[in-house]
Amino acid sequence: MSTIVLPRIMEVGGGAITRLPQVLQSIRSKKPLIVTDKVMVQLGYLDKLQSILQDAGIESDVYTDTVPEPTAASIQAGIKKMKSDRFDAVIALGGGSAIDSAKAIAVMGKFGGTVNEYRFPRQFNEPGLPIIAIPTTAGTGSECTRVTIITDEKTDEKLLCIGAGFMPIAAIIDYELTISVPARTTADTGIDAMTHAIEAYVSQKANPYSDSQAIAAMKLIGPNLRKVYHDGNNKVAREAMILGSTLAGIAFSNASVALVHGMSRPIGAFFHVPHGLSNAMLLPAVTRFSLDAAKERYAECARALTFAKPTDSDNVACEKLLTTLVDLNEALSVPTPEQFGIDKTRFFAVVETMAKQAESSGSPSNNPRVPTIAEMVTIYKQLWN
Ligand SMILES: [Fe+2]
């Protein structure tokens, strides 16, 4: 048996953002707070959204100070803003960081406490202010997950917070908002989405519902990831990628992520590597480590991603999965930790701490092959070979 949690409303397709007033009416929101970041302001997306609301006669206010890889301190100002007026909903506009910030603001603004009090293994299922999520990248799938990630800057730890309380009530999935995303961010977020689908499918918490979403996501992402990286104006590929990232989000939110994400968060927290990039650095090595424990499942991933032929044996498909993941990192110009500028001495000094943080996040225990701390340390060190 599986418990499946989804947004109540999803508006999907080019131009879907114009449906925002109807979405607000259907949840009886009269005064939403828009939570976003400075990039959305510069790109003119905030203006566009506000004019849609103005034309519909809806009063709104805005908080634009969310930051990439949000910290506990960074969301406090958002909570203060939320409490400054009688807002009845939160509109999250932006990439995963803006949506994750909005989730924390919507829940902690209503229930108080510190991020630490909401961290895994606690399950927080009480609804905060209703959230309408409008993603502008095809990546985290945060618009349809019951997860938010906030960094505790005091301990350099990315805290995973889970529960139905973090699920948006509505998601507006409009690929036109992703057309102007730069190639580097397109690649990083796209790899994140692909990793969600693979990890949901091989997770020990996988179930028939999450499997069907994960396979559909991989079929959309596999053939289109290189295309959107090389030609951001390819609308067909952009549409496939954002739909794929949403389905991958649904898949992992209703199963789990696994070892890649468990080990990726500490790299992000310690060395400020964008989330998708640290996933990409780890994905080939973690797949190699895990492969034998779930060969049929990894082979099915390779076929769904179109990295292997439907007729390939499991062994051949798994081999092709490994080689394609390595090739893909090269094609998408994913840097090694060294090329990214990480100091090797510092990295090696904290590998043990990173492995322990990975373990306490709970994600590695969902992996088909559950690693020891020493095995995670070995994988971290392999990234430098
Ligand atoms: Fe992710």
How would you portray this structure in words?
The structure is a single chain. With 385 residues, this protein is of the alpha/beta class. It folds into 2 domains: 9-178, Rossmann fold; 183-383, Up-down Bundle (Dehydroquinate synthase-like, alpha domain), CATH 1.20.1090.10. The chain is built from 16 helices and 8 strands. It has a 6-stranded parallel sheet with strand order 1-8-5-4-2-3, sandwiched between helices. The longest helix is centred in the middle third of the chain and has 20 residues, at 183-202. 53% of the residues are buried. The model has no long low-confidence stretch (mean pLDDT 96). The protein binds fe (ii) ion (FE2). Residues 140, 192, 196, 261, 275 line the site of fe (ii) ion. Fe (ii) ion binds next to helix 6. Residues 8-174 form the Alcohol dehydrogenase iron-type/glycerol dehydrogenase GldA domain.
Radius of gyration based on Cα positions:
20 Å
Order of helices and strands: EHEHHEHEHEEEEHHHHHHHHHHH
Biggest sheet, spatial arrangement of strands: 1-8-5-4-2-3
| Spans where pLDDT lies below 50 across 5 or more residues | none
